[in-house]
Amino acid sequence: MSIYLTAILKSKTDKIQDLKSILDNMVLNTRKEEACEKYELQQGLEDETVFIFHEIWKSKEGLDAHNQQSYIKEFAEKAPELLEEPAKIYLAKSV
């Protein structure tokens, strides 16, 4: 069963470019992962501090493996200094 994930991130105003650089690197590397079916990053039009990921994973195991990658761990370590608030993560299934 595929897993659909939406993540909403809100950058600190003075950290938008720093965050975007890390997120772009995550996109580049994540799209190479075997379990990744879709990994799309968007940025708000009205509020450029908002970033939204739309992801589709082949399995929970694939998503778990993704979360162990060095570039994801690097983001998690830097998130407190870059984000205004903790990321909002929504997991779903297709209905």
TrEMBL record:
Record keyword Lyase present: no
Gene3D superfamilies reported for this sequence: 3.30.70.100
Domain ABM: 3-91
SUPFAM superfamilies xrefs: Dimeric alpha+beta barrel
Keyword presence, Oxidoreductase: yes
Coiled coil: none
GO terms of molecular function: monooxygenase activity
Database matches in Pfam families: ABM
Keyword vocabulary terms for this entry: Monooxygenase, Oxidoreductase
InterPro entries cross-referenced by the UniProt entry: ABM_dom (IPR007138), AI-2_Isomerase_LsrG (IPR050744), Dimeric_a/b-barrel (IPR011008)
Protein name: Antibiotic biosynthesis monooxygenase
